[in-house]
Amino acid sequence: MVALNWQECLIFGITLAVTFIETTSQDDSCTATWHVWSEWSTCTDSCGGCGIYMRTRVCLTTSTACNCEGMGTELDYCNFDVCRYPRPACCYNRAIWSTNGRFACKLNQTTSFITDPS
Hints:
Largest sheet: 4 strands, antiparallel
């Protein structure tokens, strides 16, 4: 069973509104709850799609045998503006693309070729 619950928590004398996603097992003996996602971190780089940012959430359980479903960390690439010389314009498997008169780094689409063995 999955339910979205809201409650107020008193932490260090401050009342916070907290949203939880609760998952219970079939026998209801184990409860595992995801706390809400954190804010996205600052991007680790300024251009070229080179940077990564992340957010996390904590699994709160009633027992060490209980687990939350899903991932506790999300990662994504960020800052797709083209880098200035002397850095490479784009990182990883990215290429420069132009959209609406603006340049950006985009995943390089590769084409696979099938050769006829005959």
